[in-house]
Amino acid sequence: MSAPELGTSEPLGDAEPDQGPRVRRGALLRGRGLAGLSLVGVVVLAGLLAPLIAPYSPQEQLPDANLLGASAGHLFGTDEVNRDVFSRVLHGIRADLLVCLIAVPCGAVLGGLLGLVASQYGPADVAAQRAFDIVLAFPPIILGIGIAAVTGVGMLPVICVVIGAELPLFGRLVRTATLKVRELPYVDAAESMGATRAWVLRKHVVPNILDAVIVQLALSASMAVFISSAMNFIGIGVRPPSPSLGGVLADAMAQLGTNDMYAIGPLLVIVMLVLGFQLIAQALLAERRHGGDAS
Amino acid sequence: MTALLQIKDLTVRFPGVTAVRDLALELHRDEVLAVVGESGSGKSVTALAVLGLLPRTAAVSGSIVLDGQELLGLDEERLRRVRGARIALVFQEPSTALNPVERVGWQIGEVLRAHGTASRRERRERAAELLAQVGIPPERARDYPHQFSGGQKQRIVLALALAADPDVLIADEPTTALDVTVQAEILALLRELQRDRELAVLLITHNMGVVADLADRVAVMRSGRVLETQDVHRIFAAPSTPYARRLLASVPQLGVQDPPALDVPASAPKSPPAFAVTDLVVDYPGHPAALDRVTLSVAPGEVLGIVGESGSGKSTLGRVATGRLRPSSGTARLFGTDLAPLRRSDLRALRRRVGVVHQDPAASLDPRRTVLESITEPLDIHRVGTPAERVARAEELLDQVALTRDHGARLPRELSGGQRQRVALARALVLEPALLLADEPTSALDVSVQATVLELFAELQRRHGFACLFISHDLAVVDQVADRVAVLRSGRLLELGPADQVLTRPTSDYTLELLESVPLPDPEAQRARRAAGRLKTSA
Q: Residue A208: its chain B contacts at CB < 8 A?
């Protein structure tokens, strides 16, 4: 922390490893936080290890296995073209996690930077606020259909939509938090010592708004899972036959009477992810409030 | 004679802490009992316990008897009838005690209605009467709180408290948020009201001057216990406990300290003054000038005290000195360099030679940085030496402000208020500044802590020889540290001269008024002065 390099490295990433774990670790090791972490952990692990633990290939059409119910051999049964639903769900997790891993950090970093810039320069603030208003005026799915009309279906529109939906959230969050921190006496103190604007941002503002950003990250991950599942469900996401949670669920809708687990399986995973991220966010938020009271 | 309010064996526990322990107090009719003590001594908790206003997490035991009625354990409805009607409360901050969206007359009327005055006309007449009693023109009953000054608001709060004709008035730091001249008026009013109504007043304060002015008896509290209860004259003359002795000794008194010997003005002014302004004007659009043609200078090594009440422009002057604010006209020079035409980068370089200590050490230290990180920050900003040298330098400063190396690893919230202000001092001095700007550096501190911080300040000033702009509203504090004193009022410089001269033989009427308004921490002298003052006003 005392190294005086005044680099131009991205501020959000810069301070994260240093300030991050101090408060947060505790919150994730008990109660809600632990529950959320376990839910997300199980799903992430299943997705990562999919090629190892999936009993079949996601595309493999099995002989004599049309719309079988759940059994020891096929945990979620099989689908209408004789594929193992459990294997497809495991592989489908990867598509959703990819969205979370790429789109959420991108949205956070871009939105955060926009928010920081907006908090520093008046005209940029006005421009950013109006742009955020416009993006927020579109429901994410409509935005997705619009983008897919230009780019064609695939992972790209899903990622674009998640980034688009998160830009304004992070932008506003960072802007407000920055403006608030900047008014505090210790920032005034640093400026009186001769600190530059960049120094104040890097050393005082960013570390002090990071907690708020981390909570929003968890919330955004939950939202990203939801949006990507919804887009895959309506067919503008991952191109079939590649599996995705939303895609498997969409296919299952036609077969509800025959194999219930066909729909329940992917749904269960989506619920675990969304709920898990929400629990993590709540636990972090509660921890932050406590921390705020104590200081 | 039995006591009107009798508190016995009162113990208040919060989860993890015992705020009040086996407390016993007696308050008689027509008596002012002052409860003094430093922050955390349990004085406010005691007041809240009497009114049953403690949070639910508090466990209360013991007994509080008002005129034969036990108050502890009363249900909410019966307590409500005691509050206001029998016991009224006045808080420290008048602006938060009034509802900003209702007229003040209506607010007084509400208290009357809650205690049974049904007729609207009667309420209106009584509200006007009450306002008149506290010195507010009755026709102003139709005004809103924001249309009144701080002192007037505190008068209205007093009218509210007295509306239902209580027997006991609990005043929790009633004048702490007010300027000293306004404080003098409110104290005079409190005294008059107490006499007229034969009120029993429980006065909670940390200001020994206020105690000397108003109190009949004094209870000294520390860590939730009453250490001693004494007649006011006896406690000032011969306190029996060591703590009370120390507390009284810590109170800075005007004219008692010898002005620090100083040779600097004698030596020829070879070097330019550390900070000098000529005909300085600072105005914000749409407001009267914050500073109006002020000319003063701080010689190298000199401590210039800037005194004035809120709105006098003293903090504005400080902001000009650090280059945070540019003069609207006139010149401001830092070490001989004119600040107005400077570019931002040059200004930053100049700031390296200026240290700043803010009023509230809790807020001026980044809560996420350890003490050591905070102290090395100025070195980091200006890239002085290697990281190891910076740490060594910071540790040296820790020694100088009488903190241990262990403190360096702590976060600000793990330190006491006085320790935090020591850290702020160390941070301000780490670059060996030629000018230190101290803006109310001790006003957030308890009086005994203030005494040690001021001592430390004087010692560091001798050792480092920096010039200092010492901004304060407390004349006694300024008297203790300053070589020269400047008195500001509404942006104008009224008086500038050697400290002992300005503070003992002032030339301006306003300075005299300021000096007279400071309640003396000596009941005899204060009462004599009040008697003289009363003769003056009634004539």
A: 366-368
Token reading at A32? 């809600």
Residues 437-466 (B) with a CB less than 8 A from some CB of A = 437
Taking CA atoms, B146 is separated from A89, B98, B141, in Å, by 64, 10, 13
Q: Is B381 on the interface with A (CB under 8 A)?
A: yes
Q: How many residues does chain B have?
A: 539
3-class DSSP state of B285: coil
* A206-233 vs A140-151: helix crossing angle, rounded to 10: 70
Q: Which residue out of B377, B431, B469 would a mutagenesis test of the A interface target, given it has the greatest number of A Cβ atoms within 10 Å? A: B377
Measure Cα distances from A203 to A14, B7, B68, B368 in Å.
10, 52, 61, 10
- CA B445-B361-B373 angle, to 5 degrees, is 140
Digit-by-digit pLDDT tens for chain A (295 residues) are 333 333 333 333 333 333 344 456 677 888 888 999 999 999 999 999 988 998 888 888 888 888 888 888 888 888 888 899 999 999 999 988 888 888 999 999 999 999 989 988 889 999 999 999 998 898 888 888 888 899 888 888 899 999 999 999 999 999 998 888 888 888 888 888 888 888 888 888 888 888 888 889 999 999 999 899 999 998 888 888 889 888 898 889 888 888 888 999 999 999 999 999 999 988 888 877 765 433 3
A194/B348 Cβ within 8 A: yes
Cβ pair A203:B354 closer than 8 A: no
Please check whether residue B321 is in contact with residue B275, taking contact to mean a CB–CB distance below 8 angstroms. Answer: yes
Distance CA B104, CA B99 (A): 8
Q: Sort A7 into a burial class: Cβ within 10 Å, 0-12 / 13-18 / 19+.
A: exposed
**Contact criterion met (CB below 8 Å) for A214 and B393:** no
Hey, what are B526's tokens?
């204060």
Q: Return phi, psi of residue A210, to 5°.
A: -65, -35
Contacts of B534 (CB under 8 A, 6+ apart): none
| Helix axes A122-137 and A85-120, enclosed angle (nearest 10) | 150
User: What distance in Å separates the CA atoms of residue A238 and residue B353, rounded to the nearest whole number?
Assistant: 62
ipTM of the complex as predicted: 0.70
Size of interface A-B (CB pairs under 8 A): 79
